[in-house]
Amino acid sequence: MDLAFLNKLKQIVGNQHVAFNPTDVEVYSYDASLAVRTPGAVVFPGNTNEIASVVRACAEARIPFVPRGFGTNLSGGSVAPEGGLVICLARLNRILDIHPKRRCAVVQPGVTNFELQNALAPKGFFFAPDPASQKVATLGGNIAENSGGPHCFKYGVTRNHVLGLQVVLADGEIVRLGGSTHDYTENDLCGFIIGGEGTLGIITEATVKILPLPEAVITMLAIYDNVTEAAQSVSKIIEGGIIPATLEMMDAPLIRAVEESFPSGYPLDASAVLIIEIDGPKTGLAGQAEQIKRICSENGCRHVREARDEAERDLLWAGRRGAFGAAARLAPNFLVMDCTVPRTMLPEALSRVAAVAKKHQLTHGNVFHAGDGNLHPLLLFDARGHDQLNLAHQAGFDIVKECVALGGTITGEHGVGAEKIEAMRLIFSEDDLDVQRSLKQVFDPLDLLNPGKIIPAPIERDTPPEPPITEKQNEYSLTPSDTREACEMVRRAFLNRTPLLPQGHGTQGGFGNLPTRPVIPLRSLKFSDVIDYDPANQVVTIGSGMRLSVLQKNRCVRIIPSADWWGWTSAALRGCVMALPVICCSG
Question: Using CA atoms in the order 158, 160, 161, 163, what is the torsion angle rounded to 10 degrees?
Fold first, then answer.
């Protein structure tokens, strides 16, 4: 790396906070994935202003850079471009404030998830996202990857618990997004940064939502002689209208590895175990536990053991959280996969994972968040063997393809990073990817901020001819009948530079910042069908023009809005179809 650039970094952060010797930078050439690239230098800024100055220096010198915490990333997202700069955020490690009455905390990105939990517990609160690596995973990384963890099934992923961010953009500008409440005035720019994997900005401060500790918790270990029956139990529990705090699953190879590493009370002769936890008001909780035990027994469970006290509960969780580390007993190397399928597809997904591993002559184990269908197959191999690393990657890609074929997606919480870039084409068209490239261009026009991650390079395509503009646009509104017609109307409006306003029935037309110039309403009224109704997975897919009252009346469901749900009419911005979480109210 250029000496003048290194000297500039030293002027910004001090000599002792710049590392560039080969031995020093080697430590930052990898993360928890299998990706390896050697950076040219590592810099350790101590505050937001220093980070902004370092970023400006990179922009001037056209040097690519990547923000990094403690390197627990499992998809290569925190590995720098070869010869690039690592901006390590480890010195930004303070909990700045905790506001129990406002139910939020302000933290720096280098604080670990576990440190925040320990600070909140004496005050009677907790931070819901809890990845298994929480003892070493930083909150900046949790936000960048939109991490989940065992409790994400009930409480949601990190996105649902971030209120505001301070971010350094790719040109060194410092901005504040969001605030300390859920209802803030600007566009949801936080939503771009959360889950952006450090490609759109560097998080230097976060305001996160905290929750009161539940009044009571019951933790159970359900033991099975058959993996399929364990997976079926998961769907049946949810189908029964119960929302556990956690539903975690582990199969025989991982059970044995965990028990050999640190005995946690898992039976060595079991084919699978479920760790099931329910929490909430004490009244009625025991009844839920009995209902869960009954459902498990009806689906082949050998025995359900309830943790007798906090110590036994902690022991069960220690085994689950240590599963990835214990897997080192099974093979010198392993590739952790991360993909998601509908819960009802779990048995088939596990069967296909086993078939893929057998096809590539690899052994494997499973440990995953069964409640939300988030699979983490571990492909075991020895990198010293001939072509074993490539074989593991090929098997991993095949597993992702199988999960997508079952109606799933390519990642649940570990991100895309460098390792799953090509898998993006399994779920996105080239037009979709172009939109994402456009967003990246807006935030990072020089493509210096964590380049080569998430979005694959564009491929050459034949450019379709622009449609002729022959008909006059409707003066009052446009009401497409299907997706193709909606696309055509938007394309024509774009070519004519005609502003459109996506609308449904217009019942809230007088609210918000109204347009200051004439616009043509683009109405979703004809998109009013129920596309798919899946009570077992608690999902209904509908046209964006469906009235809420009609859906709830005809389908006997209650809609549970998520934190990033934009409402009915604005769904037209995302397409003509919506998939929403539901709770069945009958049958």
Answer: 120
Q: Give dist(CA 571, CA 577) in Å, integer.
A: 8
Distance CA 426, CA 422 (A): 8
3-state SS track over 372-384 = HCEECEEEEECCC
CA pair distance 563, 581, nearest whole angstrom: 12
The model's pTM is 0.84
Q: In what order do the strands lie in the sheet with 18-19?
A: 18-19, 41-43, 85-88, 65-68
Q: What is the pLDDT of residue 185?
A: 67
CB atoms within 10 A of CB 499: 11
Helix (H, G, I), strand (E, B) or coil at 275: strand
Domain regions of the chain by residue span: 1-213, 218-405, 463-587
Q: How far is it, in rounded angstroms, from Cα 145 to Cα 210?
A: 19
Q: What is the pLDDT of residues 259-311, one digit of tens each?
A: 999 899 999 999 999 999 999 999 999 999 999 999 999 999 999 999 999 99
Q: In the beta sheet, which residues pair with residue 530? A: 542
Helices 48-61 and 3-13, packing angle to 10 deg: 170
**CA–CA separation, 408 and 283 (whole Å):** 37
φ, ψ at 160 (rounded to 5°): -75, -5
> Is residue 521 helix, strand or coil?
strand
β-pair type (174-178, 162-168)? antiparallel
Q: How far apart are CA 502 and CA 571, in angstroms?
A: 8
For residue 579, pLDDT beyond 70: no
Does the pLDDT at position 575 exceed 50?
no
Structural element, H or E, at residue 431? helix 430-443
* Side-chain half-sphere CA neighbours of 452 within 13 A: 15
* Beta carbons of 1 and 58 less than 8 angstroms apart: no
Whole-number CA gyration radius for the chain: 25
Of 69, 72, 114, nearest in space to 204 by CA: 69
- Contact (CB, 8 A) for 231 and 300: no
Question: Which residues, 6 or more positions from 369, have their beta carbon under 8 angstroms from its beta carbon?
Answer: 148, 149, 150, 152, 153, 246, 247, 248, 376, 412
The CATH class of the 1-213 domain is: alpha beta
Report whether 500 contacts 519 (CB < 8 A): yes
Q: Helix 252-261 to helix 310-321 angle, to the nearest 10 degrees?
A: 110
**Tokens at residue 187, please?**
């566009």
Report the amino acid identity of residue 538: Q
pLDDT band per the 50, 70, 90 thresholds, residue 502: confident
Q: CB–CB of 215/282 below 8 Å?
A: yes
Phi, psi of 507 (to 5 degrees): -70, -20
**What are 301-315's pLDDT values in tens digits?**
999 999 999 999 999
How high is the pLDDT of residue 129?
A: 95
Amino acid at 109: P
115-164 residue pLDDT tens = 999 999 999 999 999 998 999 999 999 999 999 999 998 999 999 999 99
Determine the topology of domain 218-405 in CATH.
Vanillyl-alcohol Oxidase; Chain A, domain 3 (3.40.462)
Which of the four pLDDT bands, split at 50, 70 and 90, describes residue 522? confident
